[in-house]
Specification:
InterPro entries: Osmotin/thaumatin-like_sf (IPR037176), Thaumatin (IPR001938)
Radius of gyration: 19 Å
Oligomer: single chain
CATH class: Mainly Beta
Keywords: Disulfide bond, Signal
Largest sheet: 8 strands, mixed
Family: Belongs to the thaumatin family.
CATH topology: Thaumatin
CATH superfamily: Thaumatin
Shape: globular
Strand content: 25-35%
Protein name: Thaumatin-like protein
Number of domains: 1
Pfam family, one: Thaumatin
Number of strands: 15
Structural class: alpha+beta
Number of helices: 5
């Protein structure tokens, strides 16, 4: 095989790896029903020990997967994480534990995290189906946050984020001219789930994997 032919095969193989859809295996290990929500992707009812396989296009960003609890029969109303329908076309309402990701971005890497910025409703594990080096690792949040939730943040079926409760810049970080610093409430979440994001300027839970990686989201790992 000539040098040019070999080089062409390498380039084609690289393009196929970095431009194919990523598969997300979403599993419910909880002893109760979880209505998984995905944006993009819609939604799916997951009984205990059920899985949902979701393919997501390369280049997708500002994406998230979360769980909804205590929904009615058609998931049009849920106690936590509600999006108004089974197949979500928007983010869920707070409080909800969120798996966030952006695929095939800077230097052909995926970027992902578990975020508690919108509060907490279900324990979660999120990351590559096979862990690797250079930060390509699982993140998890398995603490009993609902039971330990500070009184002002308590919410049926979850633990709310302070921005939703107080609506001030201290907790919402909406004023670009003002510093966005950790608070006692963000520290509450961070101490219990150190690999998760706890407020808008928190960067300590960000992870990355080479594009072409497949992922898993596990409720109640």
């Amino acid at each position: 095989m000539s040098y040019l032919a070999a080089l062409s095969l390498i380039i084609i193989s690289t393009l196929l790896i970095t431009t194919r859809a990523a598969n997300f295996n979403i599993r419910n290990n909880c002893p109760y029903v979880v209505w998984a929500g995905a944006y993009p992707g819609g939604g799916h009812q997951l009984n205990p020990n059920q899985e949902w396989s979701l393919d997501v296009d390369p280049g997708t960003k500002y994406a998230r997967i979360w769980g909804r609890t205590n929904c009615n029969s058609d998931a049009s109303v849920c106690e936590t994480g509600d999006c108004g329908r089974l197949d979500c076309t928007a983010y869920g309402k707070t409080p909800n534990t969120v798996a966030e990701y952006a695929l095939n971005q800077f230097q052909n890497y995926d970027y992902y995290d578990i975020s508690l910025i919108d509060g907490f409703n279900i324990p979660m594990e999120f990351g590559p189906t096979e862990e690797g080096a250079d930060g390509c690792k699982l993140s998890s949040c398995t603490a009993d946050i609902i039971a330990q939730c500070p009184d002002p943040l308590k919410f049926p079926g979850g633990c709310n984020n302070p921005c939703t409760v107080y609506k001030t810049n201290e907790y919402c970080c909406t004023q670009a001219s003002e510093p966005c610093n950790p608070t006692d409430y963000s520290r509450f979440f961070k101490e219990r789930c150190p690999t998760s994001l706890s407020y808008k300027a928190d960067q300590t839970g960000n992870r990355s994997c080479p594009s072409g990686t497949n992922y898993k989201v596990v409720f109640c790992p």
